[in-house]
Write a structure and sequence with these properties.
The complex is a heterodimer.
Chain A lengths: L4 E11 L5 E6 L1 H6 L5 E5 L10 E9 L2 E6 L4 H6 L7 E8 L12 E7 L4 H9 L6 E8 L9 H5 L2 E7 L6 E2 L15 E6 L2 H14 L2 E5 L15 E4 L2 E4 L6 E3 L7
Parallel strand pairs in A: 7-8, 7-11, 8-9, 9-10, 11-12
Antiparallel strand pairs in A: 1-2, 1-6, 2-5, 3-4, 3-6, 4-5, 12-15, 13-14
Chain B lengths: L4 E3 L2 E3 L3 E3 L7 H4 L2 H4 L23 E4 L2 E4 L8 H14 L5 E4 L4 H14 L4 E5 L15 H14 L4 E4 L7 H10 L4 E4 L3 E3 L2 E2 L4 E2 L6 E4 L4 H12 L6 E4 L5 H10 L3 E4 L9 H15 L15
Parallel strand pairs in B: 3-15, 6-7, 7-8, 8-9, 9-14, 14-15
Antiparallel strand pairs in B: 1-2, 4-5, 5-13, 10-13, 11-12
Helix pairs in contact in B: 4-5, 5-6, 7-8, 8-9
Classes of the chains: A alpha/beta, B alpha/beta.
């Protein structure tokens, strides 16, 4: 198989806070290949329960390690949260269409993330440290506990703004409360990842203001390879698979029924 | 070791293939040499006209299985022949092309187009399509199954394999009707009609409301159906339903299937068909078998 299936050793599992975990895999080849917005498809069980692999966007890829960032909410992610250092995991990846890198004339890069959707933007900000554009992260979460420690982003010169549903951190309300931080200019480029209502709000805002951007979509996935057509979503080009045509789509192509 | 299998005039180098709709993009994740190890390639079902498929959610995971209602998303037969078929032919593996249609005439029309395209090993009829003016599927009626198979056999340059639905009272009756109408082989089984409910939203977890259950959960039923059918028909059977490894595949072969197909498990491990083939060979060696026919239907009755 063309470098996309591998068995990797768990290099570490860290509990970030009450909500989130980070899991690192010893996977130098994967770390070298992965692009921001791509995902890895992890077989979380040796048996048949759960049956499908689980997709995770890559959070970081340094020192030959690939890290994911997750909240154990379902059968699959809860199993991962029980992993131990040294465990072996069967992984397909890197898979899917990545975010496009900002072109040289982009002057403001806007990351918009909801909850665990912040994951791909850490890797992204690592990879565009040298880009001259101003970088901002507009980050929404349910409460203070759901907001990820943002100092790593600060190290990458990303200015972070936070909104929480209950107002326990940053501005009270949805991430759309932070849209005022976006420069309304053709030199602005938006990258979004998070729950669907948030992406719908981002797409509507971008359309209204004539801004360009991309969003990473989520859907229940089986194969992760574009074979089963199970994760198709409606787009302006007809049904497209989240796993293979996406997960990153141009904002203007997304259809929110 | 003899492991080649004949279905009608078609010869397959080994008994392991893939179930239709479970093995797209083969050329992208298999190396060229790896694809050639498959006994046959069966791409996703093609229909006369393009179909866009069903709205999401198209799949959901169930205990040791999945429910799907993809809706046979495909580009239609003409575009399939122009764009996809040349790439599939280039893989150098025997091709079994799965087709479905809304009428006998449409089946015939598609087969004529495939006759002209050339380069196939066999045609598989996906008969889990509506039987016009009736509530049932073609595969749920011996008469309708017989009708389609007979019409297709009249025109097809290739051996014809009828894919049977398990959603029937007596699958052997449908199998016998297909055989009597001239089918060269049977594929069994397709998915089981099923549903799963999101209790929080009190909604079906499938956009199409119901779907087809596949995966290891259905395997024992599929094995039983293959075993019953193999005892009554003379034509070869491609057995499928929840195969994940060689042991699973061996159950089907011992029950009487001549070939086996990995379906849903391709979504978990795209290499599974190759592992299955290696395991079957290892089993034959361990049991000092030199011909796969010693294995097929060897169940003690």
């Amino acid at each position: 198989m063309k470098n996309i299936q591998g068995v990797y050793k768990v290099a570490g599992l860290t509990r970030v806070n009450d909500i989130y975990y980070r899991l690192a895999l010893e996977a130098p080849e994967l770390a070298r290949l992965v692009k921001p917005g791509q995902f890895i498809h992890i077989k979380v069980s040796a048996g048949l329960e759960p049956l499908f692999r689980r997709p995770f966007s890559v959070y970081r890829a340094v020192g030959g390690k690939v890290e994911i960032f997750f909240e154990p909410v379902g059968k699959g992610s809860r199993l991962l949260a029980g992993c131990k250092k040294g465990d072996l995991l069967d992984v397909l990846g890197p898979l899917g269409r990545p975010f496009s890198l900002p072109s040289r004339d982009v002057r403001q890069v806007v990351f918009i993330a909801g909850g665990v959707g912040v994951a791909p933007f850490m890797l992204f900000s690592d990879q565009i440290v040298k880009h001259k554009a101003a970088k901002v992260l507009l980050y929404g979460g349910r409460s203070k506990a759901h907001t990820f420690p943002l100092n790593e982003f600060k190290k990458n010169a990303v200015k972070a703004f936070v909104a929480t549903d209950d107002g326990s951190a940053g501005v009270p309300g949805r991430v759309s409360e932070l849209f005022g931080r976006i420069d309304i200019a053709p030199t602005t480029f938006i990258y979004a990842c998070g729950p669907r209502p948030m992406l719908a709000a981002v797409a509507a805002f971008a359309r209204e203001k004539g801004l360009k951007g991309e969003a990473s979509m989520e859907e229940v996935m089986a194969c992760g390879l574009g074979a089963c057509l199970g994760c198709s979503i409606p787009t302006s080009q007809g049904y497209q698979t989240v796993c293979h045509d996406g997960p990153v789509f141009d904002l203007q192509d997304l259809v929110f029924p | 070791m003899k492991i080649a299998i004949n279905i009608g005039t078609a010869v397959f180098p080994n008994p392991v293939t893939v179930a239709s709709g479970t093995f797209g993009h083969a050329e992208e994740f298999y190396g060229q040499e790896e694809v050639k190890k498959l006994g046959a390639l069966v791409p996703k079902t093609v229909t006369l006209n393009a179909q866009q498929g069903n709205p999401p959610k198209r799949i959901c995971e169930t205990p040791a299985g999945m429910i799907n209602a993809i809706g046979i998303e495909n580009p239609g037969i003409d575009r399939f022949i122009d764009v996809k078929l040349p790439r599939l032919k280039a893989a150098g593996v025997p091709l079994i092309i799965s087709i479905s249609a809304h009428s006998e005439d449409d089946f015939v029309l598609m087969v004529e187009k495939l006759n002209e395209a050339g380069g196939l090993s066999a045609i598989e009829l996906n008969l889990s399509c509506p039987n016009l003016q009736k509530k049932e599927l073609v595969a749920q009626s011996a008469e309708a199954t017989s009708g389609v198979v007979r019409r297709v056999k009249n025109v097809s340059h290739y051996p014809v394999i009828a894919k049977l639905s398990p959603n029937v009272t007596d699958i052997t009756a449908i199998a016998l009707a297909a055989e009597e109408a001239g089918a060269d082989g049977l594929s069994m089984v397709n998915t089981f009609m099923a549903m799963a409910i999101d209790i929080r939203k009190r909604r079906s977890r499938i956009g199409n409301f119901t779907g087809g259950l596949s995966g290891p959960a259905i395997r024992p039923i599929a094995v039983r159906m293959v075993c019953e059918t193999a005892a009554r028909v003379k034509i070869p059977i491609i057995g499928m339903g929840g195969i994940t490894n060689a042991d699973d595949a061996l159950e089907f072969l011992i029950a009487g299937a001549s070939m086996v197909a990995v379906g849903t498990y391709n979504f978990v491990d795209p290499r599974a068909p190759l592992t299955v083939l290696e395991g079957i060979k290892a089993y034959m060696r361990a049991h000092r078998m030199t011909d796969i026919r010693e294995l097929i239907g060897s169940i003690e009755r």
